[in-house]
Structure formats: structure tokens, C-alpha cells
Design a protein that fits this description.
Length: 226
């Protein structure tokens, strides 16, 4: 039979319980902080990996398509009113959110007249915060269109804008996305006409959410083959 002294020693005292509780609380706080830091780290790392992938895919695609083009033009936007006149073309040092790559070659033989065979457009539709995916539009001419004939019918200076408007008559189509979310850094826009047939793509790719964004900037100089 246990004595009263033995019974008191077999139980926890109030002080011991308070100490254990305090220690448990400190450990819990430490674990919570560790888990939050780990979660933030994983969030940042996973979104940074997505950005790296986006940069690689986008730069490879636009670089490859530019190498095949013979000329490039920058317009303020893909809105029809911003690309239907030769005066809408952005000159050296000016920026816009619409890059048009023009493809033409002699057809059908190397000593024949030049013909347009393809047009590729990269553009953004920025919201009030300046954010937008990058879209891609394309038209392929089959058969190719004789440039001399177009000039004779439409006029030398504005024949291309009339062709561009005819091929893309509206600006509200459902065009495929090539970059999920970007912010233009060239005066708030994505493309800069650098002059001498050279263009700079200057933007910022975003991932994450409204609470915490993960971003990375990119600069790419592209030059059609002329």
C-alpha cells in the first residue's frame, strides 16, 4: 500500500505541467515558423522554375521565328485602328505591344519577283495594371502573294497595312497564348524598335498570385534576316 508521500511523487506537479506546456508551446512556434518558411521557399522555387521555363520557351520560339522573317514592324497594339495605316508603324526608339514578322521570298524561283508567304504577329492586350498574356496570330499565303501586284493595286506605301488588316480584320479573336502573364518594361510596352531592322523584347514574366508574385525580367534582341 502506497503512502501519501509516494502518491504525491507519482503525479505531476502544477509547476512541472506549466514548464512542459511552455516548452511544447515554444517547440510548436518553432515548427510553425519552420513550416511557413519551407512553404514560402517551395512556393518561390516552384514559381521561379515556371518562369525559367517560360523564358526559355518564349525566347526560343520568338528567336526562331524572327530568324526566318525578312522584316519586322512594331505597332502600338493589335487593335485594328493601330495597325491599318503606314503612319501607325513605330519608328526607331519607339515602343509598342504588337510585333509583326513578315516573310517573303522570290517565287517560284530565285530570279522571280518577291512574294509574301507568311505573317506572324506577337501581341499583348494589357489590362489596367499593364498585365497581359502574349498571344500569337499567324496567316500563311497559299499561293504566295506577289508584292509587285499588291503595290500596283493598293499603293506602294500602305499596301502592307491593307494586307495586314485584310488578313486580321478584327482584334478580338481567340488567339493562342505563348506566354501566360507578362508586364511590358519598354515604356510599359513589350517591344521596342531599336532601328536598323533590330527589335528588343523587354518584359517581366509573372507567376504566383495576388498576395505574392514571383517575377523575373528578360531582355532579348532579335533581328529578321532582311
Amino acid at each position: 500500500m502506497k503512502t501519501s508521500l509516494q502518491k504525491s511523487r507519482s503525479a505531476f506537479t502544477l509547476v512541472e505541467i506549466m514548464v512542459v506546456t511552455a516548452i511544447f508551446g515554444l517547440v510548436s512556434i518553432g515548427l510553425t515558423a519552420f513550416m511557413l518558411d519551407s512553404t514560402r521557399g517551395m512556393f518561390w522555387a516552384s514559381n521561379k522554375a515556371l518562369i525559367t521555363k517560360d523564358v526559355r520557351n518564349f525566347t526560343m520560339r520568338i528567336s526562331q521565328e524572327t530568324l526566318g522573317a525578312r522584316a519586322g514592324l512594331v505597332y502600338s497594339s493589335f487593335n485594328k485602328a493601330d495597325r491599318d495605316d503606314v503612319g501607325d508603324r513605330k519608328q526607331s526608339g519607339e515602343t509598342g505591344d504588337c510585333l509583326v514578322l513578315v516573310y517573303y521570298d522570290p517565287h517560284p524561283d530565285l530570279d522571280d519577283p518577291l512574294h509574301y508567304n507568311r505573317i506572324v504577329v506577337f501581341f499583348r492586350r494589357p489590362d489596367a495594371a499593364g498585365l497581359s498574356p502574349v498571344y500569337r496570330a499567324e496567316t500563311v499565303f497559299n499561293p504566295p502573294k506577289n508584292i509587285e501586284t499588291l503595290i500596283g493595286v493598293l499603293g506602294e506605301t500602305d499596301h502592307f497595312e491593307e494586307l495586314l488588316t485584310a488578313e486580321f480584320p478584327t482584334d478580338d479573336g481567340a488567339y493562342p497564348t505563348v506566354l501566360e502573364l507578362s508586364r511590358g518594361l519598354a515604356n510599359g510596352q513589350l517591344f521596342r524598335n531599336f532601328g536598323n531592322g533590330t527589335f528588343v523584347v523587354n518584359g517581366e514574366i509573372l507567376h504566383g498570385n495576388k498576395v505574392k508574385e514571383v517575377t523575373n525580367t528578360y531582355n532579348l534582341t532579335i533581328s529578321p534576316r532582311g
